[in-house]
Design a protein that fits this description.
mainly alpha
Length: about 180
Amino acid sequence: MIRLPFFKSRPDPVAALYGDIVAAARAPAAYRDFGVSDDFEGRFERLVLVTTLVLKRLKVLPAPAESIAQELVDRVFAGLDEGLRLMGVSDLSVGKKIKKLAQGFYGRAEAYTAALKDEPALDEPALRLALSRNLFAGRIAPEAVAGGLLSEIAGITARLDAASLEDLLAGGVLAH
């Protein structure tokens, strides 16, 4: 890559947080123990779930958390764009696919947020339904969603609730 002397690349303030989200979304237990499909759709669904948990936390943190949340969403979609291109999706089709993924992302995030909004406890039936419909694409009934998955979500939420914005941006918060 050619570097021009007067142009400095802008640091990515959400790089560590994004990496943390991707690592949590790709946790082997989700696929091995909880039955999430280990394919593009399953990984997308896990990414949406974990990102939603992080966005929920950013929403209650003081400024500049709101702008960080937008940068994070932008970074997530840049990663999806890159992933589609690496899979061989043509340049002409990427935009259409990203638009469809964005619609799915926001719809799922809304369903998860609604199920998670009841503090201090979550709305377990609503969360099971959202997970059944989205994460498992209706392949399993809500009551069959693994208790371990719900425990994982509760654990991630607890770690996020204890984290400051600085902690989140440093990464490592979502690790078990």
